[in-house]
Automatic annotation (TrEMBL), chains A, B:
Protein name stated in the entry: Aldehyde dehydrogenase (NADP(+))
Keywords: Oxidoreductase
InterPro entries assigned: Ald_DH/histidinol_DH, Ald_DH_C, Ald_DH_N, Aldehyde_DH_dom, Aldehyde_DH_Superfamily, ALDH_KGSADH
A Pfam family recorded for this sequence: Aldedh
Domain Aldehyde dehydrogenase: 13-460
One MF annotation (Gene Ontology) recorded for this entry: oxidoreductase activity, acting on the aldehyde or oxo group of donors, NAD or NADP as acceptor
Amino acid sequence: MQRVSEADPTTTFQGVDAATGAPLEPSYPISSLADVDAACAAADAAFDAYRATDPETRAAFLEAIGEEIVALGDALIERAHRESGLPVARLTGERGRTVGQLKLFAQVVRDGYWRQARIDPALPDRQPLPRADLRLRMVPLGPVAVFGASNFPLAFSTAGGDTASALAAGCPVVVKGHPAHPGTDDMVAGAIRRAAEKTGMPAGVFGHVRGPANALGAALVQDPRVAAVGFTGSRGGGLALMKLAQGRAVPIPVYAEMSSINPVLLMPAALAARGAALGTAFVGSLTMGAGQFCTNPGLVLAIEGEGLEAFTRAAVEALTAHAPQPMLTGGIRAAYAKGTQALASNPAVEQIACGLEGDGVAREMARLFTTDAQSVLADRALGEEVFGASSLIIRCRDLDELKAVIAGLEGQLTATLHMDEADHAAAASLVPLLERKAGRVLANGWPTGVEVSHAMVHGGPFPATSDGRSTSVGTLAIDRYLRPVCYQDLPAALLPAELRDGAAGPRMIDGKSA
Amino acid sequence: MQRVSEADPTTTFQGVDAATGAPLEPSYPISSLADVDAACAAADAAFDAYRATDPETRAAFLEAIGEEIVALGDALIERAHRESGLPVARLTGERGRTVGQLKLFAQVVRDGYWRQARIDPALPDRQPLPRADLRLRMVPLGPVAVFGASNFPLAFSTAGGDTASALAAGCPVVVKGHPAHPGTDDMVAGAIRRAAEKTGMPAGVFGHVRGPANALGAALVQDPRVAAVGFTGSRGGGLALMKLAQGRAVPIPVYAEMSSINPVLLMPAALAARGAALGTAFVGSLTMGAGQFCTNPGLVLAIEGEGLEAFTRAAVEALTAHAPQPMLTGGIRAAYAKGTQALASNPAVEQIACGLEGDGVAREMARLFTTDAQSVLADRALGEEVFGASSLIIRCRDLDELKAVIAGLEGQLTATLHMDEADHAAAASLVPLLERKAGRVLANGWPTGVEVSHAMVHGGPFPATSDGRSTSVGTLAIDRYLRPVCYQDLPAALLPAELRDGAAGPRMIDGKSA
């Protein structure tokens, strides 16, 4: 396995206890640019051998990563808790999700749909010209740079969804560990290395660099051997990576999940039937994980009336009693404070609730604001993400005004409808608009739960992601790291195994599933 | 139907007879920037209605376009022949391909695989958390800007592969007609409009602008309602569109097919067995359509020896006797002359054959050059495309040197192996390298024939295309204009028809084809 940066670190860095702000032992070496170069060289050298692994071998590697993560035991959860401030129960669930995600991608590799095998048999007697034998499969793009995310130190980080889907596709991965959880990152990177060793993967299939400087990530994205980038984080960070990737001699795809305010639409009949219950449930979704979910409901839209008033009263009550947990980092806390202050000082906006003040550092009160639709239509900035437990209720006069607000929103990860049967006609007129704006449209639930499955989409039009044609969660995420290759009249001996006549696995023959 | 620019043209432009350089009647109005705006507005307005069309209706529209093109009769072929200089037989074949392509996409729309319908049924009793009902389908991106290509005035132009695949996906299309064949473009645009009217498509489903200025295309790519771009043309043109698309407030995907030199590898046993025959056949592929195919074999690699000498002798003989046809435009001819002069004046390169001189304007002699592998390794510019009937034979000392040349090449549309059974071991070591470089790997054929089918890939790593994850020919081309949307717990009444329980069509349930 490629272990970079440990030979001669020029300097080191430490994690920070999210609850106290105190530095956490031990120190970790900061990777150098030479480390980035070495990791990319090793990944490139491993690429052909790794992509040639048979499905069972590759699946076993993915499963072994999960087993090694489980074998880290409670020490992993404890470390992630201290570094992120996220509750132990949440992190335990996140570990289950991370391991389950690796297992699911192992199954994807075995099932073989991802190969998209297609065969158009030769038609030697066709007039006016014969048809050659044509066979298509997906092949991996090459080494993938993955950036760990701060808000999911397990499921979106070192061995998270980007890593799992890229490895499943047959791409070596070089992870840039997130500097907010270096201990968690170090433990998980070790688990991946052990799994690779135990399952006989080529050296270089997993590379790892770390440190607080942006230059490290920039060097990774600019390395000519890197073929794609997976990122979850801020809009500024994602845009910077896109720019770097597009400025290369050979531009590469960047899958950056960046910014989403996740509108929740409360339809009149649902509001009338259970406005207060919705208000309470809404605050539960809003404050989960200190509101630090990509799918946090940062915008609520409803038509004015008694239902909305009941919703608002219940939400204010629940939020006012909410005790905060620490935010992930001081930087995120500062950005949250700045964003909520901007809302509070906007004359068109009223702050209607504020959560309890927390003890210790990095605890930020949840906030609830309200405004009217005309103000939002006049000031697009009101639709921008404030990362954390802040939300804005937009009072609309009627359905048309609500639609106008939706039409003016940027791309989103999710859009949610709360509705009853009497709302269906109005909702039906909204769905086409919502599916143009968001990657996931959900009904009578909250967007903060993201299932890892075949039909999930965790993506959406820009700026929710840099590439709305993709998802970063669910099995379709593997498609991000693949490209098609056609083999024309290649002798059977030279064809990839899965494209030979009679090979097992799903395939399309002459355009029909076979 | 949206007909732009005919109300008050500020000026007009004319086609040019490729054989004589004389202007062709009639004049056509140059579209204004207001015309671009109007076409994009109409396309955007048509989007929801068009994407909601049922498969049969949309398929009928695509087929009707083909019927209207056929109904144009020989006048279309004659006009295309005069504007492009391409032979009538070739254009007749190209018309068949264009119509066949529309029919194939109609079948794709009916078959429904492109929707990628996926259902993960709800698991209400799952522990620790229930699973919601999740359903996924692909939806179209939005209005697509298509740039007609000069070298295929039918199959890659106004109603070509980009238009057919985008319309199949449910995207309205705004075509920027290629100014080198305005008459052909005008006739085909009329055919599309008539087909749209006859099949009851929403106004705006097809928009059309034209004129020689780059500003027109730039405005189209920058229009905020345009969601994707399809382009086949020069590297400079493609890079310019990529930059414009990335510089938008909302960046959009550009599918530009740009530049490829299409290496042909002659393996020793094949060369020994039939070197001379290969040389003659090679010149046939090289000079087809004045070498103006994207997949023209611009590079030949082989290990030195008697077989290569026989190949070269036969190629020289065939090429020397080749009488040219006019090139597509004066600009393309000038670029070809410049590129071949640069090769001829390179001290490391020897010109070994030159075709016959043609009569009239825009006829450029075919050229054959040779050099050795070390020179190519020292000068990457020798691997750059010269668009036209020019090719460079690279003499390699051994297989390792040949591999080094391949490894140094940029991304390609195709890579070709000529081989016998005794070559298989060496070829097997080349295939992994070739599939990293090219979108199509072919054996014992020539790259200039591109089948329109399910398993075709006409794409490849940058700079062959701007996006190596895609193909612009074959049914997989539809994927370029789609994005996934997940519907979570949506009541059946609000679900898209193809995602309802019991709906017809292919789907994946819980990760398995059903």
